[in-house]
Amino acid sequence: MTQNVKKKGPSYIYLGVKRLVDIIISIVALILMTPIFIIMFIICHVGQNKGPLFYKQQRVGKNGHKFYIYKFRSMIVGAEKKLKSDKKLYRLYVDNSYKLPADVDPRITKLGRFLRKSSIDELPQFINIFKGDMSLIGPRPIIEEELREYGDRVNKFLSVTPGAMGYWQASGRSNIEYPERCDYELYYVDHASLIFDIKILFKNIIAIFKGDGAF
Q1: Alpha-carbon Rg of the chain, whole angstroms?
Q2: Could you list the residue range(s) of the whole structural domain that residue 23 is in?
Q3: Where do the TM regions start and end (predicted)?
Q4: Could you report the per-residue pLDDT of 41-54, keeping only the tens digit for each?
Q5: Any domain includes 70
Q6: Nearest CA among 117, 102, 12, 23 for reference residue 72
Q7: Which of helix, strand or coil describes residue 70?
Q8: Does residue 83 sit within a domain?
Q9: Residue 103 covered by a domain
Q10: pTM of the model
């Protein structure tokens, strides 16, 4: 990607409108998704899927603030421990831009594969959006180890609130790996606006329905 001259930071009006929209959308979404939460709660009490409803993982947000991101659990209980206890598997995870291909990831359940492919596992992030840890649109929040990928640009990356949907996702998600992913995320930081957010929203919706780059 070609680098563009950095624009002036986003206005307070834009940030205020964006936060108001986040609150309204997250409240409506959580109310409408109540049946899905109930169904998932029941499913998580039987068979291989038995365990906690949510998968929580610490991520790094705006200005380095750490928080727990919520997802419907698509992995076995103890997945994080299983990953880090297998040095070969963890090396593959790091080398593959901090993810594992679904076909070689021993942590993902059969239900989990469907949840990930359909992006249903991401729905609980409306809780994070409501709380203000995340926004609907913004760079994806990452784990602390990934910060090294941004080098001397890490403060720039952490200058905005991370989002459930971002320019990187809209452009290909897992098909775009580091270091190219950094360029997409930082491009958003430089060009954030309501118009750009709306474009990203619709591009993400299309990508979700197509299943592009979903692991």
Answers
A1: 17
A2: 12-74+109-210
A3: 20-43
A4: 999 988 777 889 99
A5: yes
A6: 117
A7: strand
A8: no
A9: no
A10: 0.85
